[in-house]
Amino acid sequence: SSRRSWGQLVTAGVGGTLLALYAVVIPFVTPALRKVCLPFVPATSTQIQNVLKMLENRSGSLVDIGSGDGRIVIAAAKKGFKAVGCELNPWLVWYSRYRAWRDGVHQNTKFYISDLWKVSFSCYTNVVVFGVPQMV
Fold first, then answer.
1. What is the pLDDT of residue 8?
2. What residues form the membrane-spanning segments (predicted)?
């Protein structure tokens, strides 16, 4: 009886671990399985500075299409923009929200789980697209 309980415990532990691993990995794998692969490529600090330089003397709202981990949105919010990030990967959206809260700009940022092909960006004054050539 003790041996059987031990076997059930091990089976439940392995099953739970695999389920948790699946839940974490699937949002990162599914974009690669799309017709057009859109991988997560984090922006470098130089690229963020280039975007901010392009936004000098501009104001209004900003949307970052394919915002990833929110680096550009957060940097723009620190410069006074009302910034929004649209990202397909829910894990990256949740992480972006956490980073915005941690950096104290959560009042000026919003992050949405959305397919960039199905969202209207007409209400934004500034549109940032940092993506791979397949996306552009």
1. 84
2. 6-29
- Distance of alpha carbon 26 from alpha carbon 28, whole angstroms: 5
Upper half-sphere CA count for residue 33 (Cβ side, 13 Å): 6
The verdict on pTM exceeding 0.85 is no
pLDDT in tens, 65-78: 888 889 999 999 99
The rounded distance, in Å, linking the Cα atoms of 27 and 89 is 6
Rounded Cα distance, 33 and 22, in Å: 15
**Residue 117 class from Cβ within 10 Å (0-12 exposed, 13-18 middle, 19+ buried)?**
exposed
Tokens encoding 118: 């199905």
Take residue 87 and report the two structure tokens written for it: 């990202």
Residues 80-107 as b or e (16 or more Cβ within 10 Å = b): ebbbbbbbbbebbbebbbebbeeeebbe
Average pLDDT along the chain? 85
Mean pLDDT of 82-106: 93
CA 40 to chain centre: 8
